[in-house]
Specification:
Layout lengths: L9 H4 L12 E3 L5 E3 H9 L5 E2 L6 E2 L5 E2 L1 H13 L2 H110 L2 H13 L13 H9 L2 H9 L21 E3 L5 E4 L18 E3 L8 E7 L6 E7 L16 E7 L3 E4 L5 E2 L8 E7 L4 E6 L4 E6 L7 E6 L12 E3 L4
Antiparallel strand pairs: 1-2, 1-5, 3-4, 6-7, 7-18, 8-17, 9-14, 9-18, 10-11, 10-17, 11-12, 12-13, 14-15, 15-16
Length: 427
């Protein structure tokens, strides 16, 4: 084996200095150099007497060497790794590794482009949302400013009218006082004369002078005046704001022609209650037959719409948006694939969104009023807890085509008293 100070490769270390090839049946001399057994035998065969090491020239009195099986094993590994099959296998691994790296580079570059596009989309959508939010609040600000100015103007006008009435009354009273003082002065002068003839005429003079009468003044109640403006002003203004909301809460009614025969509708068609008996509704192809469902009477297929449904403390219900084309005679899952965008409650606490499969929702509390928002332009259907306006679930693949509000009271458990569900009206 090589023994210089120069670093050498393993193959060089395992190369015979005589045949310049990898060792075959390697043996080690006393000087620690290695050679092929056949090579050293041939080399020493022509020498008489002490034999030298072909590398370091150290002489040995006898032709003695020993096999080195460790080196022989290393040689076999190097020889195996130098075969054509091994080289081809290494080349294949290198090519596969390069291809894998090249594929990853392409994937990462695509991800970079996609992320950059997402960043640009996020910035664009964020700007659009900011503009929309600004516009929505600007409308509210304008309404509140107009309402404030209107109320302040009404207060100013009413205050001026009442002040003017009191001031006119004060002037009338002052004139009356002045007239009375003049009459008193005349009377006093005549009394001072103390002439019997004049005194005899005084009663007739006094009776001929008209009696001066002044009203008690304007009828004004400070308590009533203040109550008008100290009343729950914020609440009354909030109620008026419903007329400027876009969309404002819609006042929907229920369509009796779609109601399942076991559903009872209130006279104003805003409330639905499950009933143990079936009502003799006339046959109608629009009526739900299999499930206790009912549609709203008002449909829409464009714009933005919002309404609220009061579910109260019912233990189970379905509130949905349904296409006009839904199957009324079959029992189907209330999911977008079947024309429904649904929020449901089961067992009094398990709230879920109507996806495939159902998506359980984590809610702080079970909602008693559900707000439903449909935006046809964005194809979005969203459900809210109407008491806190916290978002419960939003579908991004909203309906295309004519759509109606949908309610299912669900079948009550045995012994459970059916409770109503109703559309809320904010007028």
């Amino acid at each position: 084996m090589a023994s210089g100070g120069r670093p050498a490769s393993l193959r060089e270390d395992l190369t015979c200095a005589i045949c310049c090839d990898l060792f075959r049946d390697p043996v080690m001399l006393a000087c620690m150099h290695h050679f092929c057994r056949a090579c050293i035998d041939t080399y020493w065969r022509s020498i008489r007497g002490p034999v030298p090491c072909p590398q370091c020239r150290q002489e040995f009195p006898s032709r003695h060497f020993q096999a080195n099986y460790l080196v022989a094993g290393l040689v076999e590994k190097v020889r195996a790794n130098s075969s054509d099959g091994y080289v081809k296998n290494v080349e294949k691994q290198v090519k596969d590794s390069l291809e894998s790296h090249r594929s990853k580079v392409m994937d990462y570059v695509q991800m970079i482009h996609r992320d950059k596009e997402q960043v640009e989309s996020l910035k664009r959508v964020g700007a659009e949302l900011q503009e929309r939010i600004h516009g929505d609040f600007q409308a509210l600000h304008s309404f509140l400013q107009d309402e404030e100015e209107s109320i302040l103007e009404e207060l100013r006008r009413e205050q001026e009218e009442n002040v003017e009435e009191f001031q006119l009354h004060v002037v009338t009273l002052e004139n009356a006082v002045k007239q009375l003082e003049q009459d008193m002065h005349v009377l006093q002068q005549q009394v001072n004369i103390m002439d019997s003839s004049v005194l005899a005429e005084l009663p007739e003079v006094i009776s001929r002078r008209p009696s001066l009468q002044v009203s008690k003044g304007p009828q004004f109640d400070m308590k009533d005046f203040c109550s008008k403006y100290i009343s729950p002003l914020q609440y009354t203004t909030w109620r008026k704001m419903f007329f400027v909301l876009k969309p404002g809460p819609a006042s929907f009614t229920l369509d009796e022609d779609t109601a399942h025969p076991s559903l009872s509708l209130s006279q104003d068609k805003t409330t639905v209650t499950e009933h143990p008996k079936r009502f003799p509704y006339p046959p109608n192809p629009r009526r739900f037959i299999q499930c206790v469902n009912v549609l709203g009477a008002q449909g829409f297929q464009s714009g933005r719409h919002y309404w609220e449904v009061e579910v109260g403390s019912k233990l189970k219900w379905d509130v949905s948006v349904a296409l006009e084309t839904v199957d009324r005679r079959a029992r189907v899952k209330l999911c977008p694939e079947n024309g429904y965008w649904t929020l449901r409650l089961r067992n009094g606490s398990q709230c879920s969104a109507g996806t495939q499969p159902w998506t359980p929702l984590r809610t702080v509390s079970v909602p008693r009023r559900i707000g439903v928002f449909v935006d046809f332009e964005d194809r979005r259907v969203s459900f809210y807890n109407a008491d806190s306006m916290s978002l419960l679930w939003s579908f991004s693949n909203g309906p295309r085509g004519k759509t109606f509000p949908f309610i299912s009271t669900c079948i009550s458990a045995l012994g459970e008293k059916p409770q109503p569900i109703r559309f809320l009206h904010h007028s």
